[in-house]
Amino acid sequence: MTSRRGFTLIELVVVLSLLGVTGAAMGMLLLRQQRFYRGASELLYARESVRDALDVLATDLRGTAVEDTIRVLADSAVEFYSAIGTSVVCQVTDREIGLPRAVPSGNTLSAFATEPDSGDLVLFYRYDGTGGFWERHRIAAFSGRALGSVCPGSSEFSTAGDVASGSLGFQLTLDAPLNGGTRPGMPVRFIRRGRYSLYRASDGAWYLGYRRCNALGASSCGAIQPLSGPYRSYSSSPAATGLLFEYFDRSGGRLIPTSSPLDLVRVDVTARSESTQRLLIEGRAFRPADSATVSVAIRNSLP
Q1: Contact (Cβ atoms closer than 8 angstroms) between residue 83 and residue 65
Q2: Do 287 and 212 have their domain in common?
Q3: Which of 153, 223, 254, 297 is surrounded by the fewest CB atoms within 10 Å?
Q4: Of 298, 291, 237, 290, which Cα lies nearest the Cα of 263?
Q5: 121-152: string of b/e by CB count within 10 Å (b at 16+)?
Q6: Could you give the number of structural domains in the chain?
């Protein structure tokens, strides 16, 4: 009689049962791990959105240019002039101002977060014998020029080596001539008017957006650009809205949208982020969320 080797039906059933139990256990483990990492990623994303909004707004609010710089005081939007660059006057010719290069011999005399262009404002610090003030002008043009033509070595704001190397300085053209008494070495600040606001995008989510606005006159702003998000949707309730601006005077009193910007000394910004995905962990469904508040003192408010 021929002997045949193999598995009996009972053995096959037992093996398949064990494989099924092991596979199901591994599947549940992998599913739980996937849910955990997904939940952690969603929570980190929510926290990043909150941090991004507060970092951007705190930096720009602290760098507001001059008193009376805030133009809109709304619960979900703020419009103000923010500093985008600094320099010093090198030489003056009618409406044209020469500025030194960005890094002459290791000393930063011109520095720009973003290069100014037509439509921005430029401020020249002046002293009239009783106090200092900023003379404001609109920029007609701004461009790089050969350093020797806009800031020669004789000005003492550039070196012979800088000029000889072919370095570039900057030529600033104003909309109107400066008042008398302008001299080399006067501090210069460049500012840009912009609006930050909570807005609803085409995908239905709410984001922090930025719009560049006209320099002078009634507010008129361009297309909005998303900066960070998403956040909770807008709500008239201060405790629920995705982005909240609160304004205070020097006594701690709360300002309203019609208050004078000259009274403003502090802005509180609250950001509330919430995931667009609903997660199910341990049988409980929830949306990962985070919130934070930062208080920003207006650096250039009146004493």
Answers
A1: yes
A2: yes
A3: 223
A4: 298
A5: bbbbebeeeeeeebebbebeebeebebbebbb
A6: 2
Give the integer Cα–Cα distance in Å for 67 and 77. Answer: 19
Check whether residue 198 and residue 109 sit in a common domain: no
Domain of 139? 90-185
Last residue in a domain, options 161, 185, 209: 185
109 and 164 both lie in a single domain: yes
Place 211 in a pLDDT band, splitting at 50, 70 and 90. very high
pLDDT band at 106 (very low <50, low <70, confident <90, very high): low
Q: Is the pLDDT of residue 210 over 90?
A: yes
- 155 plus 207 within the same structural domain: no
CA 187 to centroid of chain Cα atoms: 25
Residues 279 and 148 reside in one and the same domain: no
> pTM of this prediction?
0.73
Tokens for 52? Answer: 């991004």
| pLDDT score, position 302 | 47
Collect all residues with Cβ–Cβ distance below 8 Å to 143 and sequence separation of at least 6: 170, 171
> In this predicted model, what pLDDT tens digit does every residue of 143-193 receive, in sequence order?
988 888 888 888 888 878 777 777 888 999 998 888 776 788 889 999 898
Q: Is residue 165 helix, strand or coil?
A: coil
Residue ranges in 63-166 assigned as alpha helix (H):
147-150, 160-164
Give the pLDDT confidence of 226-249 residue by residue, as tens digits.
998 888 899 999 999 999 999 998
In a domain, 239, yes or no: yes
Same domain, 284 and 219: yes
Amino acid at 249: D
